[in-house]
Amino acid sequence: MHSDGRPQQSQDRQAEPPDLTRYTRQTSLETFGVAGQESLCRSCALVVGVGGLGSWVAELLVRAGVGRIRLVDDDSVEIANIHRQAMYTEDDAAAHRLKIEAAAKRLRDINNTVEIETVRARLDRRTAENLMRDMDVVADGTDNFESRFILNDCAMKLAKPWVFAGIVGTKAQVMAIMPGKTPCLRCLMDGPPPSAEPSGRSPNPVLGVAVAVTAAFEATEALKILAGQSERVNPHLLVCDLWDNTIKQIDISPRRADCPCCVHRDFEFLEP
Ligand SMILES: [Zn+2]
Question: Which of 6, 123, 253, 256 is the most exposed, fewest CB within 10 Å of its CB?
Fold first, then answer.
């Protein structure tokens, strides 16, 4: 790991070009096609946190054929993670393996044409720009709003699309944020809500299958962007409760005219 958040590249990067044969069922989709696959294979995604949401999102993107993926996390696998966190096993928990290490092995086993990068760190105001600068999309796998506001500031500063996702209990929210086009996180709220989850130190209850469903919505928005079909991105805030059988599309347009972040470009969450 580099101290400033620059990624450590995979040592066993595959030199061969990806074989599109493995994506036949995807390229045959009229709305995706070979062009979408080729765009996806040339693209790179940053997954911030490979816990519940992030591990599912990373696996879905790697199976789909994203060209390069960067995983950022500093946590180790615990037995209580496994009910909701794809990719990890009891053996990983017993060995207290770093999530990025366990995830990278699993992802290479799934699709060795994808370049996997790992960074043992937390995204913070110091590391955010280096982690994000060369990425095409950012997927939110964090567990707290403090990190999300840093992520939002950095994404708006660098004009990177990102997908916000959060889940508490059986309730989920997903929103794709396209800089300059759709509302950013600060268009919706001034800062971290006081009742928000406290930096992951007091774990929220969560239904494992709800995490998987939420991550699938999140990965879908990332795939649209990476496949060159940003016009298909959902412009609404998706809110659903898997246990209460409710799903809503909340209209969040237009962007806030006086948004300090995406309008006035005051990136206070990146400041020391
Ligand atoms: Zn905004």
Answer: 253
CA–centroid distance, residue 125 to ligand 1 (Å): 18
Q: Report how far ligand 1's centroid is from the alpha carbon of 236 (Å).
A: 14
Q: How far is the CA of 183 from the centre of ligand 1 (A)?
A: 5
Residue 163 Cα to ligand 1 midpoint, Å, equals 14
Whole-model pTM over 0.85: yes
Q: How many CA atoms lie within 13 A of 165 on its CB side?
A: 30
2-50: pLDDT as tens digits: 545 555 554 444 456 667 999 999 999 999 999 999 999 999 999 999 9
